[in-house]
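Something for you to look into today, if you have time. Just paste the record in under my message, thanks.
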Amino acid sequence: MAGVIGAIDGCYVPIDAPQVDAQYYRTRKCEYAITLQAVCDPELRFTDVFAGYPGSVGDLRVFRNSPLYRDTEANVQNFFPNGEYIIGDKAYNPPLPWCISPYKNIGHLTAIQISFNTILSKTRQTIERTFGLLKGRFRRLRHLSMVCYEEIPDTILACCVLHNICLQQEDDFLELYIEEGLPFVYGNEGDEIGQYEPAGETGGAKRDRLAAALANH
C-alpha cells in the first residue's frame, strides 16, 4: 500500500482491580486492564504511544481523545505533508485522510473493496507483531501488578521506549519473542462505529482511490 507510514491499534495491558472505579477498567473478558494505543512502522518500532484509558473504553473513543488525533486534526499538513497515512482496523471507521480503515462489510462489498480489505488487513499485521514483540520481551505487561496505579501508564510507555532501544541492536530471538507474545495481544474494538460525525467525502474518497489503484496494480 503506497503511502502507508504506520499501523495503529489498541492493546490491553491487564492489571489488578483498582480500588477506585474498578468497573471502568473491566473488559469484555472480565479482567481489568489499561489500554495502550500505538502506531508502529514496518520495522516494528513505535512511532506514537498513548496509554491510560481504562479497558472498558473502545479503541475509537481512545483514538478520538488521544494527542495523536487532536494534534493531527489541528494541522494535518504538519504530520502528513505528502499525503501519507496510517491504517487501522474496522474500529477506526469512518476513515480519515490520514487514517484509513477497511470498508464495513454488510454483505454488499464489491470485489475491489474486498481485495482492498484483504490487503489492508495483511499490511496492518505489523502492529500485532509489534505488540507481540513488546509482550514477548517485557512479560510483566501480560499482567502489570503495581501498587501505585498512577504510575502504570508511565511504566507502559517506558517499556515502549525500551522496546525501540532494543530494536536498535541485533536480536537473534526477535521471532521467538513475537511468537511468545502474540497470544497476549488483544484489545477492545468497541461498538462505537457511526456514533461520531463522518469525516466527510475526503477520507472515503481517498480510500476509494487507494482501492482502485491496488486493483489496477
Q: What stands out?
A: Residues 4-101+109-190 form one domain.
